[in-house]
Amino acid sequence: MIEKFVENVIFASRWLLVPLFLGLTLVLVIYVVKFFQELAHLFATALAMDDAGLLIAALTLVDATLVASLLVMVIVSGYENFVSRLDVDVGRHNIAWLGKLDHGSLKIKLASSIVAISSIHLLKAFMNIENTSETKLLWLVIIHMTFVISALLMALIDRVTSHGKDADAKGP
Q1: What is the share, in percent, of the chain residues with pLDDT greater than 90?
Q2: CA dihedral sign, ordered 65, 70, 76, 77
């Protein structure tokens, strides 16, 4: 009887994740506000910008979009994987990936998104190379390569472990 109670409490503890997902949703709202703030600034100053400045401004908007997409991925798939299935009409909303993003594939998508975001920051630094110290540039490259290698290793590990599962499922 005590064991059943403990198991029910542990199972119900997944609902403690909900406030965290709601908090991430608020962060998403902040990113939307910041995106439109940056967009308004871009429209106000676009004609006075050179090509490099315009590219950096566009990369800033792309960066914000990638981070927002990353948040949505974590919120939706995290809720789906760890709390409860979302009760939405997948066909009507055209979100075929819903329910198909497991913990392993989420990690790979997160790592890929982080590499993309890091790439944008690195490109922005290269576009502004005259104002970027060599030390900062070196660290940006080192950090970026760390993200790239980590993402590749996670994908490799996921591939190796999923092939093991496939072989186990087929049997002898």
Answers
A1: 42
A2: positive
